[in-house]
Amino acid sequence: MRGRAKLSKSKSDAPLLPMEARSVDAIPVGPEWQYEPKWDGFRCLMVRSFDAVALWSKSGEDLTRYFPELVAAALTLKAGRFILDGEIVVPQGKTFSFDALLQRIHPAASRVKKLSIETPALLLVFDLLASPRDDALGGQRLSERRKALEAFAKAQFKTHPTFRLSPVTTSDKQAAKWLAKAGGGSDGVIAKRRDLAYQSGTRDGMQKIKKFRSADCVVGGFRYASATLDGRKVVGSLLLGLYDKAGLLHHVGFTSALKRAEKPALTDKLEKLSGKGFTGNAPGGPSRWSTERSSQWQPLAPKLVVEVCYDHFSGERFRHGTSLLRWRPDKAPRQCTMDQLAQKQVDPLKLLA
Q1: Three-state DSSP string of 209-237
Q2: Is 351 left (phi over 0), alpha (psi -120 to 50) or beta?
Q3: How far apart are CA 273 and CA 84, in angstroms?
Q4: Burial of 247: CB neighbours in 10 Å, binned 0-12, 13-18, 19+
Q5: What is residue 43's three-state secondary structure?
Q6: Judging by beta carbons within 10 Å of its beta carbon (0-12, 13-18, 19+), is residue 18 exposed, middle or buried?
Q7: Are strands 52-57 and 42-49 parallel, antiparallel or unpaired?
Q8: CA-closest candidate to residue 65, choices 120, 116, 102
Q9: In angstroms, rounded to a whole number, what is the distance separating the alpha carbons of residues 186 and 163?
Q10: Residues 6+ apart with CB under 8 A from 272
Q11: Which residue of 65, 75, 278, 307 pairs with 282 in a disulfide if CB–CB is 3.0 to 4.6 A?
């Protein structure tokens, strides 16, 4: 079945979907849990059946053509049949670059081949669902699968740097240290139930705890909501900006976490602040994040400041939407600069076996 990995010759021959994680606010504690770093990459199931290798994303998309170096590396392993669950990452200096990873999803085969040589990817492996010795490892408890994975890695990965065994601990204190040091390629902690079989396609056996950060941003513009409220147009999202060292205000993301009851009054306030808006990068400029709505925005004079909560900042913008924490009338817009987002680089490779 296209877009699904299968456990070869399994009794049910059912499609295999990656197990997913439920977001929680705190690290769960107890002997039934094990902990792993949460890597900042593309989740991937690697399936090898002798001369055939396939890479499947969490959503069931075929990633095989975008990472020829991973396919070639898989074919050099001694094991002819296996299914690995892991994360594709691209090292860049002492960190993993999500932007470099995104560049790999390109329609031109020549471009993909060039990047596979210039920015080769790694597969960080954290689960083994099938091996030459056991075609249905996924049915075993995680504690047993981890033992099988460590034996597999020792025999297969030792001489091949493309594959790295993701570390694991049963200590919640160590997990807390990983969470505190998140950044540069690791963005949190994953907790998994050691006593459960692989929970394909569900969130029942895995939780994720991410490290969120806050930043003060200028409201450089806004977009109207697609639907009206009581017959009138109201604000749908705020466009966020940060100043660079040259004093230019760059669009870095948005927040749409606005309370419905407050939208009419906020819209009135924003419409009175019409102005030049962003003086650097603006919505609708060249970006892999651009959409048809990117140019449909209203520029504002840089008068308002908000504090937002975010998870990732890369490529000079917030990768995902942010959460509005509070308005900051005590903060001068010019104080909202890019350098507040600088963080200490943590070498994720030091965590790997």
Answers
A1: EECCEEEEEEEEEEEECCCCECCECCEEE
A2: alpha
A3: 54
A4: exposed
A5: strand
A6: buried
A7: antiparallel
A8: 116
A9: 17
A10: none
A11: 278
Q: Which of 154, 161, 150 is nearest to 123 (CA)?
A: 161
Tokens coding 204: 């029942």
Please tell me the distance from the alpha carbon of residue 340 to that of residue 347, in angstroms, as a whole number: 21
Known catalytic residues are 38
Q: Which of 267, 260, 279 is nearest to 222 (CA)?
A: 267
- Single out the residue of 224, 249, 226 nearest to residue 237, CA to CA: 224
Say if residues 300 and 282 touch (Cβ distance below 8 Å): no
Tell me how far the alpha carbon of residue 244 is from its chain's centroid.
25
Distance, CA of 137 to CA of 133 (rounded, Å): 9
pLDDT along the chain (353 residues), means of 10: 40 62 91 95 94 91 95 96 97 89 92 97 98 94 98 93 97 95 84 97 90 88 95 96 96 94 96 95 62 72 94 84 88 89 68 70
- What is the pLDDT at residue 341? 80
Whether 33 contacts 194, CB under 8 Å: yes
Report which secondary-structure segment, H or E, holds 129.
Answer: strand 122-130
Rounded to whole angstroms, the maximal C-alpha distance in the chain is 70
Which of 249, 250, 315 is closest to 288 using CA atoms?
A: 315
Q: Which residues contact 189 (CB under 8 A, 6 or more apart)?
A: 27, 35, 36, 37, 38, 175, 176, 178, 179, 182, 208, 209
The b-or-e profile of 161-180 (16+ CB within 10 A means b, else e) is ebbbbbbbbeebeebbebbe
Token reading at 345:
């680089």
> CB of 20 within 8 A of CB of 206?
yes
